[in-house]
Design a protein that fits this description.
With 383 residues, the protein is mainly α. 65% of the residues lie in helices and 3% in strands. The strands form two sheets. It has a two-stranded antiparallel sheet with strand order 1-2. A two-stranded antiparallel ribbon has the order 3-4.
């Protein structure tokens, strides 16, 4: 561990995760994506389904080095101010992504029919929840538990909340897309227009009720952070991470019999499975970087994770922008700039499927270049 309380292995894990998150969100074409880069349609999981819980897990680990070290040093009110401020900013950034481009047209034809009422209409139909909104809520509620509960009480709280969620989901509804308690609660609170759509049905995979087990995913990172801040030797910490990881994977697969592994419902079996995999991957990075001091390979990931939230937001805004910009082709048809780049710069030599993948990889490399410039200039935008 470094003197500044930063774990390069954790920074590497963060960078890898945010790069993977952008990679799977930015294929050249959603019609041409390799199966491992897609989410499971409902029950079950793919490597892509590990990415978001990995990020929440990393948030939890990092909180033990930020919030927990300040307890007993700073006033709780001061800690709360920073926690609430960060949570609000994250939530608002998520709303910004959902609202952009604010109903403003990108074509001359669109401007001819444009009125400011279209901005209001777009705002009224904005999706309320989302990835950043979930991160904000998980960060907020996990912070509250860190501030007020002992390590043992945090464990009891996690067990109680997961038990409650499991019972509620099994007793009300049948865990299908059409009939599950999480969707029922969201439809009670939100208009269908303010929710995500899955297979044509209003359902939000980042909805309110399923935020409860997502908080436990974040709290699992806190448990690991406490381990890494403890007094065991580095090798003992790595061994513990491996044991916890294997236990989580086994428990997740065991619980799959009772309540299926499902990202969109964030089921308890999914919590254990993904936290287990997160422990295993972090143990590998920890062993290579912190114990063996083999770290030159990690630099691109460290750079990518140095401005993780900002690159996620900027990537989302730029993708939406080039999707909205239209190009008139010689045959009289109209396509988006996004599709034109994919078709003429990638499909032309790599084919549909590989072209879609290379588009996403190129997108990642372009952002890595931008982030590297910021890293060299020591520009780190903190949220």
């Amino acid at each position: 561990m470094k003197s500044n309380n930063r774990l390069l292995s954790l920074d590497t894990f963060r960078g890898m995760t945010i790069a993977a998150m952008i990679l799977v969100n930015t294929p050249g074409s959603w019609s041409h994506v390799y199966a491992p880069l897609k989410h499971a349609e409902w029950h079950g999981w793919t490597p892509t389904d590990l990415i978001f819980p990995f990020f929440l897990f990393i948030v939890g680990v990092a909180m033990t080095f930020s919030i927990q070290t300040r307890i007993g040093v700073d006033f709780k009110s001061d800690i709360y101010k920073k926690v609430v401020k960060r949570s609000v900013i994250l939530f608002l950034l998520g709303l910004l992504l959902n609202f952009y481009p604010f109903g403003i047209p990108f074509t001359s034809d669109g401007w001819s029919n444009f009125s400011f009422s279209s901005i209001i209409d777009t705002f009224m139909d904005i999706r309320i929840m989302g990835v950043l909104q979930r991160i904000a809520l998980c960060y907020l509620f996990t912070s509250i538990m860190i501030i007020h509960l002992t390590h043992r009480e945090q464990f009891y709280a996690a067990f109680s909340l997961l038990t409650f969620y499991t019972c509620a989901m099994l007793l009300y509804g049948n865990l299908t897309l059409e009939d599950n308690l999480a969707r029922t609660i969201d439809l009670t609170i939100f208009s269908p227009a303010n929710m995500y759509s899955v297979r044509g049905l209003p359902f939000d995979p980042e909805g309110l009720l399923s935020t409860i087990p997502a908080v436990i995913t974040t709290l699992s990172g806190v448990f690991v952070g406490n381990l890494l801040r403890g007094h065991l030797s580095p090798r003992e910490k790595a061994t513990q991470l491996i044991m916890w990881g294997l236990a989580g994977i086994l428990l997740g697969n065991g619980l799959n019999i009772l309540i299926p592994i499902n990202k969109q419902l964030w089921t308890p079996s999914y919590v254990f499975l993904t936290s287990g995999w997160a422990c295993l991957i972090l143990s590998i990075f920890y062993w290579l970087i912190e114990i063996k001091n083999i770290k030159s390979w990690a630099k691109p990931f460290i750079v990518f994770g140095s401005n993780s939230i900002i690159v996620f937001v900027a990537s989302g805004i730029l993708v939406t922008t080039i999707l909205k910009i239209k190009i008139h082709l010689n045959d009289g048809s109209i396509t988006s700039l996004y599709n034109w780049i994919y078709k003429y710069l990638f499909v032309s030599w790599a084919g549909d499927l590989n072209g879609s993948l290379f588009f996403a990889i190129t997108w990642i490399l372009l952002w890595l270049g931008v982030l590297w410039i910021l890293y060299i200039r020591k520009i780190f935008i903190k949220i």
